[in-house]
Every structure is written in structure tokens, then in C-alpha cells.
Amino acid sequence: MPVSTQKHLVLIDDDIEIQDVIVGFFKPKWYKVTVFSDAESAYEAISTGLDCDVIITDLNLPKMSGMDLTKKIKLLNRDIPIVVMTVTKSAEVAIKVIDEGAYDFIVKPIHFPQLLVSVERAIQLKNLKDNYQSLRTMVKDQGNQRAPGIIGRSPNFLNALDIAKRVAKSTANIFISGESGSGKEIIAKFIHSESNRKKGPFVAINCAAIPENLLESELFGHAKGSFTGALEKRIGLFEEAEEGTLFLDEIGDLSLPLQVKLLRVLQDRKIKRVGENQSRPINVRVISATHRNLVEEVAAEKFREDLFFRLNVIPIRVPALKDRKEDVIPLAEYFLKRFGPINESSVKQFSKDALQYLLERPWKGNVRELENAIERAVVLCTTDTIQKSDLISDDQMLKAGPSIMTAQGSPFALEEEGRLLTLHELTQKYIEYALVRNDGAKDKTAKDLGIDRKTIYRRTQELQN
After folding, report:
1. CA distance 241 to 235
2. pLDDT at position 464, please?
3. Which residues contact 88 (CB under 8 A, 6 or more apart)?
4. In the chain, which stretches have pLDDT less than 50?
5. Domains along the chain?
6. How do residues 262-286 score in pLDDT, each as one tens digit?
7. What per-residue confidence (pLDDT) applies to 184?
8. What are residue 357's phi and psi, to 5 degrees?
């Protein structure tokens, strides 16, 4: 079972031998097992916050029985599947246990393949319920937003959103500024969805991502044979966005010749495909955006002043994430609910240290960096709670250089002090990683790596010396 999906079982049985056998069966299968000898202690732990995926309990326990424990757990409204074990084969007892809320009923002596199937099915059912609840919560959260699908409650972000909503139905060109990753395209899509053009297409292009010699063709289209490789005629993005919205992201990276052509299009509302003399009328609303300071670019004569004024009819500034701290936790929780089901992860929450870390980070990459950090944490986390150590920011990844992730989510570099690790050093680190993944089980590690057990023991000795 993958590290990121390690499951947690609570076992309650007053027979120490049974405890040891069940723990010994599940632990090599990458299950964490917490053992209690009485139902009272187990109930106290669960009622005060202990979380687990499945409870396995004996029916006949001193003081509080497994039946009574099942009733009390259900009253907590904790959706934890309970598998009850007993020596009796009575169908009446089995039906009563299920009626009280148990997921399954296992007869002793335990048939372990049956117990494993029962536990795995219970976990699958629990995951389905959790995923369904996550989706419902996401829908509810989005319904409570001023703009469905947009997470934000900080005053400066809501101010930008309010401006976007007020101007959405106008015909004016809109210019969105803000740092990379701050959500400029999200605002552009929101404007389109609130406009009279919402039934038309929303077409986006990142001007910095297309080579200059191809960008003109991308925007305006080209005639067949107009340049090498133009085997067929092609319409450009302006025509694709007809009766809709064209979003020109990173427009500050346009070359001066293309700026001239774009200015002409905005003035005349007509385009010419590359290699054609015919002008074609267009009905497109243009929303542009950049992370650059175009006032400075204009002063440096790197951006045309007349084009800037043509684009900047209605300016909207999207604040950086460091200036909207109120939105960090809601965004992080949204990404957690989004990436958990996608990655089949049981992660449900953040620890207090993790939340504090999220609030203290500068998030130079803005919402995009936060999204990346949460997705990585969901994949790497080995419990149901993301810890501070699971959160690796983009700049930490870059500083680490080429790396391999350990089971705890921390990277070990393939380089140290500017030199490549030797093959011996790298092998040692990988064996250490495999041992951590397998919870120290040397025989399983040797089998997984396809090497002799003696090699593992020898390498382990080297790690300890």
C-alpha cells in the first residue's frame, strides 16, 4: 500500500496473544494499529479526538462490551466503520450487532483473509462517504461565495471582485494587473461569466509563452502558404473568440511590431490573417493582463503609450497573496478538499503548526505556489493530518536542486556542496528511504529492492556507524 495512503486501525481485545497476532498480520501490509485492552479506554481516546479508519473490537469485553461500544461510537456521529469479533456463530447475535451500527461481524478463530477483506471494504466505503461529503462541502462553499468558484474574503480582494462584477456587462476593455500566480485569469473568467457575452467562447493566450515569430499567426491566423510550414489556412484566436472574450495574458511581453498591429485591431475592430490583404470584422471583447508595471515600461519606451491607454480603460489590480492573508487558510482548505479525492488520499486536515506555517510564508508565487504546496503535501502525507514538515514550498524545491522524496516528504539532494553524490552514497540514502517506507522491516525492504537480506543488514550497520 502506498505511503501516502497508510491506514489506521484501532484494535480492542483483552487477549494479548490475539492482539499480537492481529498487529503482526496488518503491520507488514502498511497499516498502523493502535491497541486497547478495554473498551472504556478506546472510547475515551476516540471521543477526545483519536481518528482512525476502522475499529476492530471483540464482542465480549470486561465492563463495556463491543456491542455497547458500537452504540456509543455511533452516538458521537463519527463515521468510523466497526468490525466486531466474537466466538459465537449465532445469526441472531450477528444481526443485532449489525443493527446497532457495526459494519461487519467476524467469528473467531479469525480467518485473516476474511478479516482483511472486511477491513479493506470498510475503508473503501468510508472513503466514498468522505469524498461525497467533501464534494458537498465544496459545492456549499462555492454557493456561499460572491462569485461561485472563487475563494476570497479579504477586503482588497473583494474590492477587485466587486469592480470586476460592476464592469462585466460593459463593452470597455479591461486591464488586469498583479503578480504572477495571483489569479488574473480567474478574474478574467469571472468577468466573462458575468457579461452579456457569457454564451460565447472564453479564449486565453499567454503572450510570453509563444515564440514571437508564431504569435502573430496565433492571434490573427494565416493563409495557406504564407510562411514555411503553413500547409493549411488557419483562423486565429481573435476569430475563435468571436462574440466572446479574448484574454491576452502577459501582454507586456508583446514585441513593439506586434503592439502596433494589436493597436490597429482594437481601433478598427478588424483583423488580417498573415499572408492576406482582406480585412475581417471581429466582435470580441479584449481583457488583457500582465505582471509587469506598464507605466514603467511605457516610460522606458518598451510599451506603446497609445496601446496602453487603449487597453487600460478599466484597470483592476489583483492583490498578491501576501496582502490577503485572510484568504490563505480558506484557499488551502479548498485545495485540500480538491486534491484529496483526486489522489485517493485520506488526508482531512492541517495541524496547528502547518496552519501557522501557511500564514507565515510570504508565498512569492502567490496562489499558484500555495496550490502546488498543498498538492505535494496531500501526496506525501502519511497520516490524515498534514504537518508542517509535509509542506514544501516551490522555492524550497528549487533550492534543494534535483532530489528524491523520502517517506516523510523531505527531500534528500542528489548533490551536496556542488558535487554529485557517489553511487555508494546514493545507494545508502535510497536504502534508508526504503527502510523508512517499510517501517524498518528489513526482510520486506530486501524483497522490495530485489537484494539479499545480508546486504540490507550490512548497509544498516553502515548507516548506524
Report:
1. 10
2. 54
3. 59, 107
4. 1-4, 139-145, 398, 400, 402, 404-411
5. 3-140 (3.40.50.2300), 155-318 (3.40.50.300)
6. 999 999 999 988 888 889 999 999 9
7. 93
8. -60, -45
